[in-house]
Amino acid sequence: MYDFLTGPMLYLSLAIFIGGCIWRVVWYIRGLDQKLDRVAYKAHLEHGLKHAARSVIAFIIPFGSHTWRAKPAMTIATFFFHFAIVGIPLFAPAHTTLMDQWLWIAPLSLPQSVVDFLILMFFISAAFLILRRVALPEVRILTNWQDVMVLAITIAPFITGVLASTHTGDYQFWLNMHIFCGEVMLIAIPFTKLSHFVLFFMSRGQLGMDFGIKRGGLKGTKFAW
Amino acid sequence: MPQGTLCRALPVQNEEELKELLADTGGKKYYAEMQELDVNADKLAATLQKTLKSRLRTWLNICAKCGMCAESCFLYRIHNRDPKQVPAYKIQTTLGEIVRRNGKVDNKFMQHCMYTAWAKCTCCNRCGTYCPHGIDMGVMFGYLRGLLFSQGFVPWELKIGSGMHRVYRAQMNVTEEDWVETCEWMAEEQQEEYPLLEIPVDKEGADIMYTCNAREPKHYPEDIAEMAILFHIAGEDWTVPSKGWEQTSLSMFAGDWEACTMQVKEVYDAMERLKPKRMVGTECGHAHRATVIEGPYWAGREDGLPPVPCQHYVEWLAEALRLGKIKIDPAKRIKEPYTIQDSCNYVRNHGIKKAVREVMSYLADPSYYRPMEPDLEHNYCCGGGGGFNGIGMYRKERNFALMTKRDQILATGAKLVIAPCHNCWDAIRDLEEHFAIGIRWSFLKPLVVHAAIIPEHLKPQEEEEMEEEA
Question: Where is the Cysteine-rich domain (chain B) (predicted)?
Answer without folding.
Answer: 338-424
